[in-house]
Amino acid sequence: MARQNKQGKRTTGEPLIAFNLREILSMADLSLLAVLVVYTALAVIFYSHVPKASANILLNAVIVLLIIALGIGDKLHGGTIFRIARRYYAIPIIYLMYQQVHSYVPVVHPVLYDDVLIGWDKAIFGLNPTQWLQQFAHPVLTEYLQLTYTVFYFLPVLHGVELTMKGDYERLTTFVYFMTFGFLISYLMYFLMPAIGPRFTLHNFLATNQELPGLFLTKTFRELINAGGSAPAGIPDPASVVNRDCMPSGHTMMTLMNILLAFRYSSRLRWFFAIVGGSLIFSTIYLRYHYVVDVIAGVICAFAVLYIAPRLQLWVRSKGFIQA
């Protein structure tokens, strides 16, 4: 067996790692690992039907190794670099998970529920809200709302940076877990009711720039959003390839979660998040990305995740799956 010399240094044969995964994984890590397992299983089961299935499997394996490596590095070395890396690595991974889920949704559940969602909106309001809002359209309003919609991913990052600058790593860890869990749950829920949204079903998608013009940046922002949703400019039939990610509204769900946590943590930016985030939620309807029932579902999901996440964490700890 490996021994230590009198100076306490490791001698030949001593294992480099003397701890197991329970000691290095966080709840955010476990959330990502669980979804990676689901995605990989779907890639294997529907291998012949999923575009780039092999690439997805390889990517998932790399991400798993990255999560474990960061956990080991943090455990062995600690320090600010690993502490920050452990909490911010999820940002690009979450986006990769968003892109990947759309390889599976059309294969697993190849049905669109836009007609159902339109029917629900009409049953509640007696009309199509996105069409009704057209009468209030103005280039200044459109410019502002397109900007708020575009900064969706940056708002929770800004909140995380504030917690980091305060040195409040305990709250930062909880915040990262809640947001990561929320994003991943929203992605999995796309399997339930795939939909492409009113900009394709109730409006002429190709005429959006003419019907909802902005001032200077709206068209650029809009094209970036379209490209991120698999509908880049010039594609012949965008409705057939765009991401089926309307129900629930992830923009609403995650933005509301960020606002609620900002007030819970007494963030200095809480009113900024409330104003910009509230505008963002309204923009999802005004800009024709979502039906109102998508937004209602997003609100319900936000409260559900904030209720479930801490209780799930306590259960996981009680079962000994993690120690952090």
Topology overview:
Blueprint: H1 27-45, H2 53-77, H3 79-88, H4 90-108, H5 114-125, H6 129-133, H7 139-150, H8 154-166, H9 169-189, H10 198-201, H11 208-211, H12 218-228, H13 238-241, H14 250-264, H15 270-286, H16 292-318
Helix pairs in contact: 1-2, 1-4, 1-9, 2-3, 4-9, 7-12, 7-15, 8-9, 9-14, 9-16, 14-15, 14-16
What does this structure look like?
It is a single chain. The chain has 16 helices and no strands. Mean pLDDT is 91; it is low at 1-18. Helix 7 packs across helix 15 (270-286), helix 9 packs across helix 16 (292-318) and helix 14 (250-264) packs across helix 16. The two termini are 29 Å apart. It has one domain (21-318). It is mostly helical.
Low-confidence stretches: 1-18
Biggest sheet: strands, sense, closure?
none
Mean pLDDT across the residues is 91
State the helical fraction: 55-70%
- N-C termini distance: 29 Å
What percent strand?
under 5%
> Count the strands?
0
Q: Please compute the radius of gyration using only Cα atoms.
A: 22 Å
Q: Structural class from helices and strands?
A: mainly alpha
Shape by Cα distribution: globular
Number of H/I helices:
16
